[in-house]
Fold this sequence. Notes:
Layout: E1 5-11, H1 14-24, E2 28-34, H2 45-60, E3 64-73, E4 79-81, H3 84-99, E5 107-117, E6 124-134, E7 150-152, H4 165-168, H5 171-190
Parallel strand pairs: 1-2
Antiparallel strand pairs: 3-4, 3-5, 5-6, 6-7
Helix pairs in contact: 1-5
Amino acid sequence: MKPKLTINFVTSNKNKVKEIKQILEPEIQVNPVLIAYPEMRSDNPEEIARQSAEMLANKLRKNVVVEDSGLFIKALNDFPGTCSAYIHKKIGLNGIIKLMDGIKDRDCTYKSAVAYCEPKKKPISFLGEEKGKIAEGVRGDFGFGHDPIFIPERSGKTYGETKAYAKLKKFRRRAVLKLRDCLLNKLNQKFKY
């Protein structure tokens, strides 16, 4: 029997842990490491995720997975982008809705980058994206982050209005599934009989 793979998912967001576990387990065991860490500033979530993963793998001396995501609003020149968590804390969802007041083009993209790194090695990263629109107001109590203002393509509801949001969200799932396939392929190559 082939050994099971365990990853150390470093985050300070328990909601992300829940989502990642739903996607990866039982195939890959997720060990949450709930700590905050400094992030570089970049408009590219993959660059942020790779640098954070490499820094944390060397600091913690074990394999790590990190995730960086953001909401990129077309009419606001991709703001808040990779600064989404910071902007969410400062002006909240209502602040973003206010910034969008009177703007007809409400197109946006939710992006998620996950990166994996082992100590003293180079990180690998994967990007997942999902297109949608910004709602006219905050709608729903489900989900977290920008879920109550993000309406995915081919839907009339925000993720905040959708009880099964975690199973329906595509942007993070797409990135994590790419990581899963890479890690399982690596494990299968290592333990071929």
